[in-house]
Amino acid sequence: MKYRIVEKEPFKVVGVKYTVEMINQILSPTYEDMIAAISDTQMKEMESISNKEPYGIVHVTVNYSEDSEGNATFDQYIGAVTTNEDTYGYSTIEIPTFLWAIFEVDGDWQQVEETWKRIYSEWLPSSSYELAEGPEMLVSKDQKSEIWIAVRKKG
To answer: Where in the sequence is the domain holding 79, given as residue range(s)?
Structure first.
């Protein structure tokens, strides 16, 4: 897996927020439903205010909590990283400084899912890093993706 470790200063994500439930590995709403609910005009507007890395449309997962049966809830933002003060009426989340493991993925959604699984099953157990209590992000465009995972040094 190709990755890099980067410390990134605080940044703001502006976009559409969903509260998602995952029961028996099934999301409600699904990612397809979330994306379909955002108009082309909104997507273009969010993309146009993206002025800080990671550029373009980002998918940010925060406030993840899981019960004893493996069911989970979390907040999902689909938006853009920006320094603009005008939020265009979208929801906003401030992301504090984190150390990020950024994994590059070439390919379709199946490749992204496979890489995500390998991050948890292979990379994290064998690396000198562990998960930090922070967000996960996905940036994708034209079969090129980056998975951003908030991490900290083990120990």
So the answer is: 3-153
Peptide bond preceding 29 in cis form (omega within 30 of 0): yes
Q: Which residues neighbour 110 within 8 Å (Cβ) at sequence distance 6 or greater? A: none
CA distances to 71, 72, 95, 109, 131 from 114, rounded to whole Å, are 21, 20, 26, 9, 18
| 100 close to 6: Cβ distance less than 8 angstroms | yes
Task: Give the Cα separation of 57 and 78 in Å (integer).
Answer: 7
Q: Is 24 left (phi over 0), alpha (psi -120 to 50) or beta?
A: left
Give the total number of structural domains in the chain: 1
DSSP element (H, E) containing 131 = strand 129-141
pTM to 2 decimal places: 0.91
> Which tens digits make up the pLDDT trace of 23-44?
988 899 988 999 999 999 999 9
SS3 133: strand
* Pick from 19-28, 98-107, 114-123: least confident: 19-28
Which CATH number belongs to the domain containing residue 86 in this structure?
Answer: 3.20.80.10
Mean pLDDT across 149-155: 95
